[in-house]
Write the structure tokens for this entry.
Amino acid sequence: MAKDLTKTSTRTGSLSRSVRARRGRSGPHDGLGAIGTGGGGLGGRLIDAVVSPNLGMGLVVAVVFALLCTGITLRTRDQPLVAVGRVMDETRLVRMQIRTEDGPRTQQARELARQATPRVYVADVAVLDAITNSLENLPRTLAAAGDLAAVDPTIQEQFGLTPELLGAVRAEAQDGEAVSSWISKVRTLRALLERRPLLDPQTWQRTMNEGSNGRVRLLVEGKTLAPALRSELINIEDKERLVEAMGFAARDAGFTGPLRALAVNRLTVGARPTYAYDPALTAQDQGLAAEAVRPAVAVSTPGQIIFQRGEMLTEAERDLFVAELAQWARGSETWQRWLRASGIAGACVAVTLALAGYTALFCPRVRRNASRMGGVALILALSLAVACAGTAAAPELGALTSVTPTIFVAMLIAIAYDRRAALAYAMLHGLLACIALREGVGTMAVMITGIACVVWTLKEIRDRNTLFRTSVFTSVGMGAATVVFSLIERPLVEAVVNEVLVDAGLAAGGALLIGGVTLFTLPLIERAFGVTTGMTLIDLRDPKQPLLRELQQRAPGTYNHSLNVATIAESAAEAIGGDGLLTYVGALYHDVGKMNKPEYFVENQAGGPNKHDKLSPAMSLLIVVGHVKDGVELAREFALPPRVLHFVEAHHGTTLVEFFFHRAKNQAVQAAANLLRGRDGGKDGGRDRADPRDGDDGDAYVPDEFEYRYPGPKPRTKEVAILMIADAVESASRAMADPTPGRIDALVRAIANKRLLDGQFDDCELTLRDLHAIVESVSRTVSSMYHGRVAYPEPKIEPAEQRA
């Protein structure tokens, strides 16, 4: 028996009922209910979030995020977060008795130890050897000299030789060699010289003026001699004292009579320093002496002021503050530490719950994707860690490090998702940062100002100037807010004015820095979050894009159709507050798959026979439906963004290919009629013959409506739903004989209602109000395309013979 051709597809009906059951709705037109209520309101969104398959992953992300934030906050609050040289905004007291090193006293004691350390002098062995050798060899040198004229003038000058001295020296030689007593005297003199250093004038002056120890350390060839008194050091430029000291040394060495004068002459004529100051060894000895000094201990009692509001922080006060924090962490009662940690954990959990609740209710794009939930949580946690680590490392830059990460979160979320999400996420992140950094209302107010500036100005990025304007506007706003709230909260002392100006400059510079970083990393941001900014869309709408140029050349009719659809859809998207630029670009590319077989689509057929006339409906269906699959493959090959690719894959949704479906039905009816006619022998049975449409014959195949539908998916965004309507309206209006505004409006409403009743808008957040605005916009735009024109009279052409 033939199937009933008038019934709708049972498979389609079962699919529709299954979708409605999963969405938790009831009634014959649940798609209408969803559109009319805008998603079931707050309660419906909450229910959707609870029954979401990503609920478990969301809970895991929330727990991990809360633990990370709690750990970061606890760690940061144990840091001093104050900078030496800045005016303090609060007064801090000692909470429990602590014993700390008295830095100034310890430093003073160590400095005294350094000053009391003897300076180190190293003997110039070459000079000492030269003196010793010249004296030891002098008798042998002069033994053969008969008179003074036979002695070298240099030797005469060096030793101050006279005939008397020459005779005395020759007496110290025996068989041409110096006698042992002479050598003994010379070596004794060498030992005395090692204990009576001769210094150059500069070294002697520094020695007399530096240090508090009256002795110096003498080092000869690595061997330390007994310390010498500083008063015994001799300046070689002080001739009188040099001669006197060398006379005593020569006398003590055993030189008498004229030989003593000879030794003194050798030591004083052209005298050279016998010792040199060694700063490295001196510093080493001073360091060891300083290390040996035990630190001075200071006892601080509870209630003692660590630092006071309005006063500039000193190094000693900061050290005391650090010690007090460490002592409190070690010595406080267990219940006190646990209560403090519990309070911080509770605050972090509360902020996490607020973030999770906002995501569940108002951020479906994040809620429906586990990786996006994890990505957002990771961004927030990393930004908090950067703010805490930067402020702890450089508290003097707190105006930059504490606020800038939160502004970066606002800018990143505004680009990746939307401005409302950026406002919520960034403000909650700023609250976490203020808790972790012990910041007050003023810092939070500066953050709110920066976030508001970003959210207000960063609607979409269509060019580089957008980010530049946002950065400048945010910079000015944060700088001004820093000045205003600093003057409200900070102590008004003279030093604060400069600090406020510096902080304002840091906050403003941070906003500019964030803008530059965002612009530089924008392609990475788009790829990481799967978003498409206006800059990318503007590049894609350029007719010189390779894919559009190929479409122009291979399927010019389809390209013109896409231009018309783009114009229609863009106006409709802007009418409901949608993304007009995205809609326009999506419409340009939605039919790129037709370039594979352009001649099978009517807009590319320049008259002549239709190629589908020679094909079966099933084969024609494959070609027509195949343009969606071909378009998706081309879009991926040319790396179109995911949001644009969705226009290609979903612009027909799961709609019915009506023309070929009805052709297939008619062919089935005709085949059934021919079959019945053959069975009754060709007799004209009149009214008694069975009609094949009654379904009494089961041998004829009747196509199922489900088989002649596009594979989908259905539109998931309002913009793609608009494209579906605009595409159908543009194609249908071409076939109208008299496209008047009234007929166009009726056509648009009929197509929109048909798509609505077919459930094509079930997966997007399109309301009936939006649909009404779309219909009105599409009607106006299409009517303007087919506006009436003045009928000009045709020129009268005269017969050729009359013109002759």
User: Anything to note?
Assistant: Residues 24 and 48 are 9 Å apart (CA to CA).
